[in-house]
Amino acid sequence: MKQFRFKILLIVGFIGLSLYLLYPTYQDNQNNKEISEKLEIIKDSLQTANPDMTEQELNTLLNIEENILQSQEAYKDAREKRMKLGLDLQGGMYLVMEVNTAKLLERIAKEPDDRFHTLLKAAEQESKLSDENVVSILTDKLQEQGIRLSRYFGSIKQDDGEIVDELETQESDAVSRAIEIISNRVNQYGVSEPSIQKQGSRRIIVELPGISREEEAKQLLQGRALLEFRMVKDPEFTFPIMTAVDGVMKKIITNDTKADTTQPDSLDYENMSEEERFQQNPFFFLARLPRDAQYADAFVEEKDMQKLENYLSLPEVQNVIPDNVEFLFSAKPIYTENQINYFKLYMINKSSELTGEVITDAQANIDQSTTAPIVTMQMNTEGSIEWARITGSNVGKRVAVVLDGVVYTAPVIRGKIPTGNTQIEGMEDLEEAKLLEIILKAGALPAPVDIIEERTVGPSLGQDSINQGLTSTVAGLLLVIIFMVFYYKKAGTIADLALVSTVLLLMGVLAGFQATLTLPGIAGIILTIGMAVDANVLIFERIREELATGKTAKAAIESGYLNSYSAIFDSNITTFFTAIILYQFGSGPIQGFALTLMIGIVVSLFSALVVTRLIFDIMLTKGTKVNVG
Known about the structure:
- By secondary structure, the chain is α+β, with helices and mostly antiparallel strands.
- The chain folds into four domains: 2-82; 93-225 and 448-454, Alpha-Beta Plaits (2-Layer Sandwich); 353-427, Gyrase A, domain 2, CATH 3.30.1360; 458-622, Up-down Bundle (Multidrug efflux transporter AcrB transmembrane fold).
- Helices cover 58% and strands 14% of the residues.
- It has 21 helices and 18 strands.
- The chain has helices at 5-49, 55-70, 73-81, 87-90, 101-108, 114-127, 134-144, 160-189, 214-222, 235-254, 274-280, 282-286, 305-312, 315-318, 381-393, 430-441, 459-512, 519-532, 534-548, 553-585, 588-622, and strands spanning 84-85, 92-99, 195-199, 203-209, 227-231, 287-288, 298-301, 325-329, 335-337, 340-349, 354-355, 359-366, 373-379, 399-403, 406-409, 422-424, 449-457, 516-517.
- Strands 6, 7, 8, 9 and 10 form a five-stranded antiparallel β-sheet that branches. A four-stranded antiparallel β-sheet has the order 3-4-2-17.
- Helix 20 packs antiparallel against helix 21 (588-622).
- The longest helix has 54 residues, at 459-512.
């Protein structure tokens, strides 16, 4: 057995690794059942304690509790590491969006005439039939007619190559800005595990699991990004509102209509548990104020953000918040402590002093005097005049730069800015400054985003797909197992063990790479099950032929494997290359099928050539009779 030690360790190691990688998926499934059971208990408790509670209020509180449970580290860790399900299995929307960069070129062109519009329209139509960008096609058409690009773009001193580089950069930035806008909106909307990725030069693939309201989702994605400059409220205004919110939240949590609010500074927190602190001052427990803070900005742990938003959205809480203000979070963590991200919570005006429509340009640079990254932005004439008025009348106050409902920065106005040129500081590095540049430019989307393909799958249909896929997989596996045992006897049983290891290794690899399992992917698994025994069939038939010539079992097995290699590798390699082509040139569902098929081919070959051979060798060493039917 010593000569087989390496192979045994290799096989056991792969199987153990597969089980380890698949465990989070199993754990997440158990967690979901546990959460559902807890929510049922909470629901019964709430209905018993508050029989007059409306269905909407009940659902709101249940959603809060569900978010609290889902945010727990044990549940969160398993959910992040589990095998993801595609839209066709869990329901949602699949969209292919295209940034209309032709409109961008039309907007930035100087003095466009009828000839320009004709050539641009032709370039736009041609670009739809290829992956070539509009700039390249338009450039070729202009050059064919002897027209320099400086006629419509750039400076007359620039040659065509320089102008093309600038236009292609702007075209690429337009797509990047669109992706940033869509990501912000999707995250703000609260979609779980969205997928947003660029395809080609101007297309964006968006997958929104769990979304069923088509029109609302399309409006979310195609709506214009809103960049706003809003004033941050002073501490004297904000603290009393926070205290009132804390009191209302305490009444809701304790179900005590006479509950009073105690200022957190006067409490003996050291001798209180976290649960007692939360019940005593729920708002100030979730949104913590530093002692002797200069501003009324609270800090909230990332896991508590959704929980706090849910409480703030309750009608009882909204009643104590003035209609002209709202709480907004920072766009990114302000700091991280003990691997916990903390976001800042601001109270700002609902009405904007200025919107991003007035911004004409933004540039990320390095401040020459401080070497710190900065972003400078320019405004049009109307915006410059309004900005001078706003900054002049609010010296010493803070203005928040808000994009799609989150605060990117809230600097103090040091003095009146008579021009539209404004500088923003506070970025960690130039990459962050570049990102803010894109965000500021995205305030007024330079090009429309069109939906050119959409698919919607309902949650019930997705569950039906899962059930049918599992049924098909199990049925296919059982049929193959029964056939192999019936036809090849003991050797068939060995092949079945290899088949089980193939499926286990395949699922482990998919889980390890955090691949998304789709319905075509399940089809690839079923095909792999059917193909997994092909190599064994070839080997067993060869062994039968060798045994018929009078060879010993050991010689027959060695010859059977050796003479089967060429046919096995030829068939699997050709199939593997076909799967590569499908993956390279196919779209999402085709890629899912091709990826599963490629992994299946590799693991099935490993099982057929390593696992079954090892079992045969061990049987021969122990003197066990080999029966191939």
